[in-house]
Amino acid sequence: MTVVKAENVIKDYGLNGQTVHALRGVNLEFQTGEFAAIAGPSGSGKSTFLHLVGCLDILTGGSMIVGGSDTSKMKRNELAILRRQKIGFIFQAYNLIPVLSVEENISFPLSLLGFPPREIRERTDRVLAEVGLEGMAKRRPKEMSGGQQQRVAIARALVKRPALILADEPTANLDSKIGKEILELMLAMNKSAGTTFIFSTHDQMVMDYARRLVRIRDGQIDSDETKGGAK
Known about the structure:
By secondary structure, this protein is an alpha/beta fold. Helix content is 35%, strand content 30%. It has a six-stranded mixed beta sheet with strand order 6-7-8-3-9-10. The two termini are 24 Å apart.
């Protein structure tokens, strides 16, 4: 099943009176259960593409189908609902709320969606165990290491049980040992739940783990390779 379908996607930005062509007619599809990386140098357009998939930005041209919905025809409030209901996000800066505890950070998306308290508790407890953070529910982000904070971010993305998780440079602030642990964790979630993961990265380790590697340069697809399997 197709989770994401980009057709002739164009994204332009205005910068200092000039037009920056961030994406120049990108065509890509991602299927259910993929573990894919989009790689390229800084300014290549990889993060821009991820932001468009995640309904964090608006297309200049073309169409983007996410979870069966054409985002190019949706209003901002409709995009926000789609993003909240169907997409999980993992960022390199973790983006945790510092005044909330681990369990509050994880359960926050469920609260926004109006889940009943009992189900919020059950889901939060389950995902805490899945990411190996039992006993840390009451801690604040500042009391945790970078790797632990990224595990909280993964748990927060997974707790909604989304069909799609977007990870923007998720290993950038981690050393190689912790980065490998995080990738192993995400790969396990991908295999057990069939969740589609799409990364933007310039980290070779992420590229090695990906079962599909899309390279982008100057806003256009440079190559698209499906590999035999992740580590």
